[in-house]
Amino acid sequence: MSLALVHSRALLGLEARPVCVEVHLANGLPSFTLVGLAETEVKEARERVRSAIQNTGLEFPANKRITVNLAPADLPKDSGRFDLPIALGILAASGQVDARKIEGYEFAGELSLGGDLRPVRGALAMSLALAQQAAPTESAARRLPKLVLPEGSAEEAALVPGAEIYRAHHLLDVVRQFLPGDGQVEMLDGWRKVEPTERPFRHSYLDLADVKGQAAARRALEIAAAGGHSILMMGAPGSGKSMLAQRFAGLLPDMTTQEALESAAVASLGGRFSLDRWAVRPTCSPHHTASAVALVGGGSPPRPGEISLAHRGVLFLDELPEFPRAALEALREPLESGMITISRAAQRAEFPARFQLVAAMNPCPCGYLGSLLRACRCSPDQVARYQGKLSGPLLDRIDLHVEVGSLAADELVNAPPGEATAAIRVRVVRARDRATARQGSSNQALEGQAIDAQCHLDESAAKFLNTAAARLGWSGRGIHRCLKVARTIADLAGARTVQVTHVAEAVQYRRALKANH
Asked: Of 28, 46, 254, 340, which cross-links 353 as Cys (Cβ 3.0–4.6 Å)?
């Protein structure tokens, strides 16, 4: 009898928890049993591993009773990531691979029937998990376990600073490194250490100069970018709401390395990450028929939804009232906390969801309420019913409400381009730097006593705000959000204190939707 242990990782939310692949070969009726709360695609590894070992010229112990246990037994395992560690465990248990040599390595990779390695989801999450578990007392040479991954996944995992990643093309490339004996193994092209490289931060965003006119909406986007605020744009069809929203991400400051890693890790879990999108803030724009599960995430095991895939980026919801009510109400907690917790009977997963919400809607079912170009044909009841699809608590959590007016032909044809994204970003970065130097966070993140400390108003500004809040019927949350927007406006102006003019402009962005003609 023989036993081999190979280490890998399973994904649960953004966590990559360690998994020990235990392989036991025993005499008895030939069989291949796989246990350990494995999903269907993991159980199918038996056939992939058997064919891969046989087709690469290695010996599969077909006359043995093979038992593979994926420990811990109560952790769900999915996808084909365990093909490679299972194959290595069988080879180590049968003496074809030196079990001592594979200590200190972790493996993940899907096998083809011919033994080729295919990329897996979540490679960056695995590498981040290794970096986080590294003990500070260990020597630099042994700080992190070595991670062996297929091509594509290895380059992704190597983005983590200090990670030791090896790339392999084929099962034989891996086997050659761990053959019994003390001889030196030739480093072939199929097996190579992937050196962490500093990738350039790129600006591949659409330019706001493409949008002509719309000075009020452009100003609101600048404020939203400077303070990290959410924004709702309301206007007639074709007025430019979608163009403005699709260019919003370019106004935001460059990602830090940590933010880029967080965003890339979530994208890797969803199978959306590519190296050419490194450090580019994502803009997720789900269709208005998307369900609540599609937005917040779900499934078994849980997968990230659109709000998590938009982490550190922009979530653009076009035709906001057309989304299912349950989907919209599910946004309320993540807008406040920046996290989403998905609880199921068997497990619980947390995903980051610190996104900026940019929403767009028509003012009425026909879309032309208040338009100067076309008359609205909706009755007051229809308008009220349409706008009533958005609950008060959700609207209360959106900092900026702005109307986007229709443009006449002479404002579009032969009109000069608008101000470029690069020029606006300079002002946004300057305002964010002021906020960070003052309080260590963006203005939108202010809570509790920090709001009073950073948004201190003089007597005239406080009186103005009290009058506006009483007339408009604001909640306490609405007042606090107006204060934070006013603080951002003051930062854009370079003012140390929040003045009446800043509060007055902030009040303009907190007006309730009006269902009248």
From this structure: 340
